[in-house]
Request: fold
Amino acid sequence: MPFLISVIASIAFIGLIALCIWKPIVLRVIARIFAVLASGSGVAGIVAGVFFLCLGTAHVEENEIVWTLAGGAGLLVSGIISLVLSFVGRRKKTNDREV
Reply:
């Protein structure tokens, strides 16, 4: 069963790559969706880490808080970078219209 799931996921991923090569706007939309999700998750991780540091509970270890803050910062930076890169590049012009 896991092999079947991995085969189906691989076929879907290859199809998505082919679609992104055929229509580059799809890749830009996917990058923008990822940017929003990663930035939101990064801010949530940073806020949760600061909240646990201020709360000082015994249920959460300090090492876990540091990893939460680091993961949140990494997600926030990767979201910002992917958003910037989704706007970089040239567009094809056909008859004085951008496509």
Q: What stands out?
A: The mean pLDDT is 83. Strands lie at 93-94, 97-98. The chain has three helices and two strands. The CA atoms of residues 91 and 97 lie 10 Å apart.
